[in-house]
Specification:
CATH architecture: 3-Layer(aba) Sandwich
CATH topology: Chemotaxis protein chec
Order of helices and strands: EEHEEHHEEEEH
Structural class: alpha+beta
Strand order of the largest sheet: 1-7-8-4-3-5
Distance between the termini: 33 Å
Number of domains: 1
Shape: globular
Number of helices: 4
Oligomer: single chain
Helix content: 25-40%
Strand content: 25-35%
C-alpha cells in the first residue's frame, strides 16, 4: 500500500466523509480509525494490526503491565468502520471526545502517509505543513 497526496473535503450533515477515490482503491470495505493527537489515522484492518505490533517490536511482553496497557489503549481507541457503496465512512461512530474538531459541514484535510491516511483539522494541518516545509528543503538539498 502506498497512499500519498493531500485532499480537502467536508464532512456531510450525517458526519460522513467521502474518501478520495485513490485511497478507496487501497481499502476493501472496512477502515480502522485511530485518534492520534489532532488527527485520525485510517488503516486497513491488517495494517492496523501491523502498526500496533510495530510499536512494541520484538520486545513485547504480555506480562509487562505497561506494555499490555498501552497495547490495550491502542486497540480500545480504534474504531472499525464500514466503507459504504458511495465510498464514505461515518465519523459519527468515533466517540466525540476523540474527535471534537469534527462537526457537520466542517472541512477536513485527508493526507496519504504510506500505509495509512490521516484526517486533519485544516488549521492543524496548515500549521504542520508550514513548520515542516523548511525542514523538507533541508532534507532534499545540501546547501
Amino acid at each position: 500500500m502506498h497512499l500519498m497526496g493531500t485532499k480537502r473535503h467536508s464532512v456531510d450533515s450525517k458526519l460522513r466523509l467521502k474518501l478520495p477515490a485513490e485511497f478507496r482503491r487501497e481499502f476493501g470495505d472496512q477502515v480502522c480509525l485511530l485518534p492520534v493527537n489532532e488527527s485520525l489515522y485510517g488503516f486497513t484492518p491488517e495494517e492496523h494490526a501491523r502498526f500496533v505490533a510495530e510499536r512494541f517490536g520484538d520486545s513485547y511482553d504480555p506480562r509487562d503491565r505497561t506494555q499490555e496497557d498501552l497495547r490495550l489503549m491502542l486497540n480500545a481507541l480504534t474504531v472499525e468502520l464500514d466503507i459504504d457503496s458511495a465510498g464514505r465512512i461515518s465519523l459519527g461512530r468515533v466517540p466525540e471526545k476523540l474527535r471534537p474538531w469534527i462537526a457537520p459541514g466542517q472541512p477536513v484535510v485527508v493526507v496519504g502517509n504510506e500505509n495509512r491516511f490521516e484526517i486533519w483539522r485544516p488549521e492543524s494541518w496548515d500549521a504542520k505543513e508550514a513548520k515542516l516545509l523548511p525542514q523538507l528543503e533541508a532534507l532534499l538539498y545540501d546547501d
